[in-house]
Design brief:
Strand order of the largest sheet: 1-4-3-2
Number of strands: 4
Shape: globular
Strand content: 25-35%
Number of domains: 1
Helix content: 40-55%
CATH superfamily: RelE-like
CATH architecture: 2-Layer Sandwich
Largest sheet: 4 strands, mixed
Length: 103
């Protein structure tokens, strides 16, 4: 099983999503948090089960309900790095361009 690390932007994304959902429905916010925890646990056990992001092979993407989670795998350190989480209706390509690591 891989360890999991959340980058600061991913933590901000999660906080923003939970805050938004909570303002509309505390139950929906709780469901999102539970679903996110379960999904991150799944990819920590099987990090290669989700497809590579077609715009940049550094990232993999996982669909979680209405959200898209972007992560990378550091095989040397057995570490799963959560980069960003977006609602699927956002301009994901534009947002992800900002986060592409220097090569």
């Amino acid at each position: 099983m891989y360890s999991v690390a959340h980058l600061p932007k991913a933590i901000d994304d999660i906080f923003d999503i939970e805050e938004y959902l909570y303002s509309h429905s505390p139950t929906a916010a709780d469901r999102f948090t539970e679903m996110l925890d379960e999904c991150v646990g799944d990819i920590a056990e099987h990090p290669y089960m989700w497809p590579i992001y077609e715009k940049d092979s550094f990232f993999r993407r996982m669909i979680i309900g209405d959200y898209v989670l972007f992560y990378s795998v550091d095989e040397k350190r057995k570490l799963l790095v959560i980069h960003r989480i977006f609602h699927h209706l956002r301009n994901i390509d534009f947002e992800m361009q900002k986060d592409v690591p220097a090569k």
